[in-house]
Write a structure and sequence with these properties.
Elements (H helix, E strand, L loop, with lengths): L6 E4 L8 E6 L2 E2 L6 E2 L5 E4 L8 E9 L2 E4 L3 E3 L7 E3 L4 E4 L4 E4 L1 E2 L7 E4 L2 E2 L6 E2 L5 E4 L8 E7 L7 E2 L3 E6 L4 E4 L3 E4 L4 E7 L5 E6 L2 E2 L6 E2 L5 E4 L8 E9 L2 E4 L3 E6 L4 E3 L17 E2 L11
Parallel strand pairs: 10-19, 21-29
Antiparallel strand pairs: 1-5, 2-3, 2-6, 4-5, 6-7, 6-8, 9-12, 11-16, 13-14, 13-17, 15-16, 17-18, 17-19, 20-22, 22-26, 23-24, 23-27, 25-26, 27-28, 27-29, 30-31
């Protein structure tokens, strides 16, 4: 019988003037807070606990003698319990995670749940009816709370405290800004976009880490800014995106800086006779420069 319940033992006898005496082991028992009907054909054991476990018999007496019933054993069903609940787990996407519990000797089977949903064995889960649950090929969809319950023949199932699964994403770069070809003193903006997750960023020029300062900002963010670019800023830039599960590097973004045109030679003052042609010349430092003359 279950702990805390009541149970009844009974004997059937024939004869005249019968009296009854119930015993636990070899000791007569009397009505009290635990027993009722100790002098009748039906014994009730109230609020059963571990102290009530044992063998019981009834001695039946008549004018012609006494007889003892066979022994009846009363055992107490103790609900199973957890001695160790599942711990919180944090893993990288794509890896496996394991939750485990330790239960008392009375535990015979296990039921795992994610939230309120019962888990069954599949390519995603193994050990769904054991003390250890394994979750394979983890993704963000697997995040949540996991519990284990023990069937209890004496009442409601026994449910463990929850274990929390947190998934850390492996960094992925989903977009990188295009190469830049801009004029001196302009603002250069380079950026990357990533998948979901908590990441750190490090911008580099020719594989050398950059730091914020002067005209450079955003070196530890998804967007790098360089104000007032000069020829010395030209080069190849990359961004390294990192999490606790690894790192990935963007493709190269090439920054080309176009210099402002400068005169290598200015038009000289000239004199010419009326009606004669006059030629003025100028030369600029930058190839592809267009010219516009003004008077």
């Amino acid at each position: 019988t279950c702990d805390g319940n009541s149970t009844t033992l009974a004997v059937i006898a024939t004869g005249a003037g019968l009296t009854y005496q119930w015993k636990k082991g070899s000791t007569n028992i009397n009505d009290d807070a635990t027993f009722a009907g100790t002098k009748t054909s039906q014994l009730t054991i109230k609020n059963v606990n571990a102290n009530a476990a044992g063998t019981y018999s009834c001695v039946i007496t008549s004018t012609c003698g006494s007889v003892s019933s066979s022994n009846t054993t009363v055992s107490i069903s103790t609900p199973p319990s957890f001695t160790k609940a599942p711990s919180n787990v944090s893993v990288c996407s794509g890896a496996s995670a394991t939750f485990s519990v330790t239960a008392s000797a009375g535990a015979t089977s296990y039921v795992w749940r994610k939230g309120n949903t019962i888990i069954t064995n599949s390519s995603k889960y193994s050990g769904a009816t054991t003390a250890t649950l394994t979750i394979n090929n983890i993704s963000a969809a697997d995040e949540g709370t996991y519990t284990c319950s023990l069937p209890n023949s004496c009442g409601a199932d026994i449910v463990s405290a929850p274990g929390l699964l947190t998934v850390t994403q492996t960094p992925t770069i989903t977009a990188t800004s295009q190469n830049l070809n801009i004029c001196e003193d302009a603002v250069a903006v380079m950026s990357v976009e990533t998948g979901q997750g908590s990441f750190t960023y490090q911008w580099k020029k020719k594989n050398v880490n950059l730091n914020d300062g002067g005209k450079i900002s955003g070196t530890k963010s998804p967007q790098l800014l360089i104000t007032g670019v000069a020829n010395g800023d030209a080069g190849d830039y990359t961004c390294e995106v990192r999490s606790t599960c690894g790192a990935t590097t963007s493709r190269v973004i090439t920054l080309a800086v176009m210099s402002r045109p400068q005169f290598l030679s200015q038009p000289a003052s000239s004199q010419a006779c009326e009606g004669s042609p006059l030629t003025l010349t100028a030369e600029a430092s930058t190839s592809g420069t267009t010219y516009r003359w003004k008077k």
